[in-house]
Amino acid sequence: MSEPVDVVLIGGGIMSATLGTLLHRLQPEWKIVVLERLSEVAQESSNAWNNAGTGHAALCELNYTPEGKDGSVDPTKAVAINEQFQQSRQLWSSLVEQGLLDAPKTFINATPHMTFVRGEKDVAFLRKRYEELKKQPLFAGIEYSEDSRVINQWAPLLMQKRKKGEPFAATRVPGGTDVDFGAITRQLFDHLAGEGVEVVTNREVRKLRKNADGTWRVSYRNALGKTPGSIDARFVFVGAGGWAIKLLQSSGIPEISGYGVFPIGGQFLKTTNPGIVAQHKAKVYSQASVGAPPMSVPHLDTRVVDGEASLLFGPFATFSPKFLKNGRITDIVAQVRPGNLWPMLKVAIDNPSLITYLVGELMKNHKKKVESLRTFMPTAKDEDWELIQAGQRAQVMKKDADKGGVLQFGTEVVTSADGSIAGLLGASPGASTAVSIMLGLLKTCFPDRIDAWEPELKSLIPSYGQTLNGRPDAARATLAETARVLDIDV
């Protein structure tokens, strides 16, 4: 067996691309190998058509500003997510200026973020949310209106032929974005490959085993010829989407015990009709259906992929036992272990509304889905919209001391005690906060190096180690500078 490499990154998505980029900048002499099971990178959750490309900054997503029992609105999580997204914007800006990413228009475009609600209760909530967020420096410029004429100027498709007398309200942040994470991922890997990083496709990692010397044996199969192979590494990152749990379980690290994942697929209605697309430039979110997971909040989105604008509406939940779009039907069963069986069963028992929601979604045909769209766009016609299949999301289920098991939304990094292996579980808002997640991973897995790395990290991400929201002048300056570099000034 040849000398171990320094790093193996499993999975060709935005997480591995981000971590690989950071590590290569911090330790350019390290040998880094990327293993992707498909024939190209960015084909699963990072692919533009497998995610909504919102550039999650909590500007419009209501689930990040929960309402308390006393009726108050808590902005804490929204602020935290926005802080994380600002780190992503700063890194992308640095990489654009250094020529490591292509022209910004190839992956990011200015697109206002809006929230639109109907009914007195939701209008009252949105008004309170606006009052809280407008105080936050990172949310400067947020606008609120209950005036149909104003909302019609913001997003005409929301108001055309809407019934009179119905209470409604909207917020708008002009500085929102549409992000093509597939494009970012491909560009980052192209640069890494040009710098000597091995980016190897058609390699399906099957097993992880720790060697006696503390390195990891990464066993894989060539997807083309089915021939086996292996590589030893001093550090392994598992960024394999839904398959991460399978590989972490194979590693035998005790930290993965008690975790399971529940796969949820999605479909979107899509139109490229230029007459419709021209009337809507925004990402408009609303309230989720009862029982729906936060990532299933309905939204009508402008998308720009490969320079072409379209509109997406959804998502509509689908079910598949696969953990990836290109996974296996045995995935959901193969994850079961003695340590996670009860937590997963408890999640099923405690979340009947989720099951009801999924069944209801599965019963919707194309006509019913367009009817759902009409709550946003009253003039929507069946023939203008086609259904497209989005990616698979694997929601985290984990052991809980009080409840036995909980369904956790968002992402979670699972790391071995010695920091030699780490993997990412979960879904939204993962891609948008990839930089923040990977910075946290660096601190956890490389505690003896992180202080020496700090100057380089600050050169790439000026707010590294600090928050922006508590420093209004810094927040304002950072937002303006990244908007300038990324060509998203509004």
Automatic annotation (TrEMBL):
Q: Which cofactor does it need?
A: FAD
The EC number of this protein is 1.1.5.4
Q: What GO molecular function annotation could you give as one example from this UniProt entry?
A: L-malate dehydrogenase (quinone) activity
Name the pathway it acts in. Carbohydrate metabolism; tricarboxylic acid cycle; oxaloacetate from (S)-malate (quinone route): step 1/1
* Keywords recorded for this protein, A-Z: FAD, Flavoprotein, Oxidoreductase, Tricarboxylic acid cycle
Question: A Gene Ontology biological process annotation?
Answer: tricarboxylic acid cycle
The main enzyme category here is oxidoreductase
Report the catalytic activity: (S)-malate + a quinone = a quinol + oxaloacetate
Q: Which domain of life, per UniProt?
A: Bacteria
Entry's InterPro entries? FAD/NAD-bd_sf (IPR036188), MQO (IPR006231)
Pfam families listed in its UniProt record: Mqo
Q: Does the keyword Transmembrane apply?
A: no
Q: Which NCBIfam families match?
A: mal_quin_oxido, PRK05257.1-1, PRK05257.1-4, PRK05257.2-1, PRK05257.2-5, PRK05257.3-1, PRK05257.3-2, PRK13339.1
> What PANTHER family does the database record attribute to this sequence?
L-2-HYDROXYGLUTARATE DEHYDROGENASE, MITOCHONDRIAL (PTHR43104)
Family, similarity comment = Belongs to the MQO family.
Under which name does UniProt file this protein?
A: Probable malate:quinone oxidoreductase
| Gene from which this protein is expressed | mqo
